[in-house]
Write a structure and sequence with these properties.
This protein has 367 residues and is an alpha/beta fold. It contains 17 helices and 11 strands. β1, α1 and β2 form a beta-alpha-beta unit.
């Protein structure tokens, strides 16, 4: 079972994501994809397209009033938190599920991945994710003293992880009533102002709604099954900030990707950050996202998820090019002016800018 939440902002990524899940597997008939919506029922066209494509996709419409954490939230925020209710929303026979954000492209077999999770020594684990190199306290900058009231301060020394690709052991979640523990933890975190932290990409911004990542991190700490790092190659959505003259962070990400080869070898590429692959100017999109999108539309997945068709990617790199051209046109002119003003002997230019006065002890000829 593979699941994700859907809202209008994430719709462009659906067809490429789902096509990549099935096309990357040697056993696509063993994969069941669940798409969770909170808006209208899927159209007749979408249902017919699912039958034509011949894969197992179930579209669920979630009643937000039924679940405490989803009350009074925007659709985007609700679909971010709906993952906590997968033990109830999925069939009782489902023992595990892989949750994916919709800004991910899968390039390896998720059925094979799931078959290796929560078995043997990891049977009692409730969660599986890719561990980050930094500890949770380093990323969140939370103070143990503030979390002490919640009895979760000790987990700050545990490994951090990104919740964009995680697997749930549904049997353990049901047996331990973990959803109820999350329902108690989220409002408690909101009350002390720790429902999110800087660096998390949230629908509507950091203050709009609680993060799904924070309660997962604090609830499990370092007690989760580790996935290979290739299963969440993130940061591909690192954006060019409005206050930055040059996209240095983006260039650094590209250089690191080329140098390490992590993106090329990635099993799941994750455009975490503000610059999504369908934005039209993401530097990784032409090579890794756009071909997948085209293949998904050719295979009929665009009819299942019509939001994909509205983003054809024809303007890839255009905003980037305009900003770079402006920099390279303006920079030489500014440099020339600075050099001309500072260079000794540039009398003609300096005379126009600064009036010259005769020095004392020298005569001035009137001829």
């Amino acid at each position: 079972h593979v699941a994700f939440g859907v809202d209008s902002h994430q719709a462009p990524g659906l067809a490429p994501l789902v096509w990549s899940i099935f096309s990357s597997s040697r056993s696509p008939h063993c994969i069941h994809v669940h798409a969770f919506y909170c808006e209208a029922e899927p159209s007749l066209q979408s249902r017919e397209a699912i039958r034509r494509v011949g894969v197992e996709i179930t579209i669920h419409v979630v009643d937000l009033e039924r679940f405490p954490l989803l009350h009074n939230l925007s659709n985007s925020s609700a679909m971010n938190l709906v993952r906590f209710y997968l033990p109830e929303l999925l069939p009782e026979a489902a023992s595990s599920v892989l949750w994916l954000d919709t800004d991910i492209i899968v390039r390896s077999d998720v059925h094979e991945l799931l078959s290796k999770l929560f078995v043997g020594a990891n049977r009692s684990k409730s969660l599986a994710a890719v561990a980050r190199k930094k500890e949770l306290r380093t990323i969140t900058r939370y103070r143990p003293s503030k979390l002490g009231v919640l009895n979760v301060s000790t987990v700050l020394r545990g490994d951090a992880f990104n919740a964009g690709l995680i697997a749930f052991n549904l049997q353990q979640w049901r047996a331990q009533n973990l959803t109820q523990r999350v329902e108690a933890l989220v409002p408690a975190l909101q009350e002390i102002g720790l429902a999110s932290y800087a660096g998390i990409s949230l629908p509507g911004g950091m203050r709009a709604a609680p993060s799904s990542q924070v309660p997962l991190q604090l609830l499990f700490g370092h007690d989760f099954q580790r996935l290979d790092s290739c299963w969440n190659v993130g940061g591909l959505g690192t954006s060019w900030g409005q206050g930055e003259l040059l996209p240095l962070r983006v260039w650094a990400k590209q250089i690191a990707a080329w140098w390490t080869g992590k993106v090329a070898r990635g099993c799941a590429l994750h455009w975490s950050g503000g610059d999504k692959p369908w934005s039209g100017h993401n530097p990784f999109a032409p090579q890794y996202y756009k071909p997948v999108r085209k293949a998904a539309i050719r295979a009929g997945y665009g009819e299942i998820f019509p939001g994909t068709l509205a983003h054809d990617g024809s303007d890839y790199y255009l905003p980037w090019l305009l900003r770079i051209v402006a920099i390279f046109v303006a920079a030489p002119s500014a440099l020339f002016l600075v050099v001309a003003l500072r260079r000794p002997g540039s009398g003609a230019l300096r005379a126009e800018l600064v009036p010259q006065s005769p020095s004392r002890g020298h005569s001035v000829s009137l001829e």
